[in-house]
């Protein structure tokens, strides 16, 4: 995959369709995690996913004759990327134990806001504009409509989970910005960045599983195994390869605005597959998200 010089500033129709597919996969991932959690502790599953997907990325890069390791003298960046990604998932899964899933999703998908803000300060030619600001605010408003919780009954320490989910979103944004920043000065391909993210995240995730999930049972059945395979092949392998190719070839603030669609897809898949209720708030939220994406990319 390559983008001709000067074509990376505007998202093409093919890039938009690829982003929609990626967001749909990310949205369905929430459903698959619910199934895999029935047999695997979450951080153990995340560790296995990173390990197997990393091996698959290495094999694909080897088959295509592409380098998989960062150039000598730049490999410290690979470690940083992996640690940031590992902390993202560590706070994501840990925070859900303190706060309701709907709240955690809202805070996690504040990620585009942190990307758009951070890109203004750390990236060239990706500055804030009125359209980006308005689009981000509208999209986030749409998420609030989709995931709005009517009940005032919240866990006593929900604020701890809220802060953890915000931390997860910030680490996710930091990973995106760090990769984009170093790719402006170091010649890298999307295989190198994804492999580094997956492999160097393993120690962080494995440590989390060791300290927080000791004694939790593993119960295997066809549904659990299928759900974990989906997370490995569709999410960690295919969708992340697409995402990192897009990061290398397009402004991240424009890409980030599309990620607001992922939780909307999650609600739709949850309704269809898990029979979770869906109402007018979802339709209204989806409208806000779509308008926000149009403004951010106009």
Give structural notes.
The chain is an all-alpha fold and 298 residues long. The protein has helices at 13-36, 42-64, 75-95, 101-108, 111-122, 130-147, 158-183, 190-199, 202-212, 222-249, 252-258, 261-274, 280-297. The chain has one domain. Helix 5 runs parallel beside helix 7. The longest helix has 28 residues, at 222-249. It starts with 12 loop residues before the first helix and ends with a helix. Mean pLDDT is 81; it is low at 1-8.
Helices and strands, with pairings:
Elements (H helix, E strand, L loop, with lengths): L12 H24 L5 H23 L10 H21 L5 H8 L2 H12 L7 H18 L10 H26 L6 H10 L2 H11 L9 H28 L2 H7 L2 H14 L5 H18 L1
Q: Indicate the percent of residues in helices.
A: over 70%
Summed up, the domain count is 1
How many β-strands, per DSSP?
A: 0
Shape, per Cα inertia axes: globular
Summary, kept brief:
The chain is mostly helical and 298 residues long.
Name the features.
298 residues; mainly alpha; 0% strand; disordered N terminus
């Amino acid at each position: 995959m390559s983008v001709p010089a000067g074509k990376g500033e505007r998202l093409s129709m093919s890039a938009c369709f690829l982003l929609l597919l990626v967001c749909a996969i990310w949205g369905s991932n929430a459903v698959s995690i619910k199934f895999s959690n029935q047999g695997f502790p979450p951080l153990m599953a995340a560790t296995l996913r990173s390990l197997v997907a990393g091996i698959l990325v290495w094999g694909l890069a080897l088959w295509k004759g592409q380098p998989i390791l960062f150039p000598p003298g730049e490999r410290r960046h690979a470690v940083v990327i992996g640690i940031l990604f590992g902390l993202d998932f560590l706070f994501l899964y840990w925070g859900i134990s303190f706060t309701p899933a709907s709240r955690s999703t809202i805070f996690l998908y504040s990620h585009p806001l942190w990307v758009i803000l951070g890109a203004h300060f750390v990236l060239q030619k990706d500055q804030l504009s009125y359209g980006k600001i308005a689009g981000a605010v509208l999209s986030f408003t749409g998420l609030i409509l989709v995931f709005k919780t009517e009940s005032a009954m919240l866990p006593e320490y929900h604020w701890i989970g809220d802060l953890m989910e915000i931390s997860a979103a910030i680490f996710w944004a930091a990973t995106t910005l760090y990769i984009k920043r170093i790719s402006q000065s170091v010649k890298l391909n999307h295989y190198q960045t994804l492999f580094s993210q997956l492999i160097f995240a393993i120690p962080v995730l494995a440590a989390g599983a060791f300290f927080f999930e000791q004694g939790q049972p593993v119960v295997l059945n066809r549904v659990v195994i299928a759900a974990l395979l989906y997370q490995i092949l569709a999410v960690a392998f295919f969708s992340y390869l697409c995402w990192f190719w897009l990061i290398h070839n397009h402004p991240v603030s424009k890409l980030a605005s599309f990620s607001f669609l992922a939780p909307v897809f999650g609600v739709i898949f949850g309704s269809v597959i898990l029979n979770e209720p869906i109402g007018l708030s979802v339709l209204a939220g989806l409208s806000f998200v779509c308008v926000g994406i149009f403004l951010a990319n106009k």
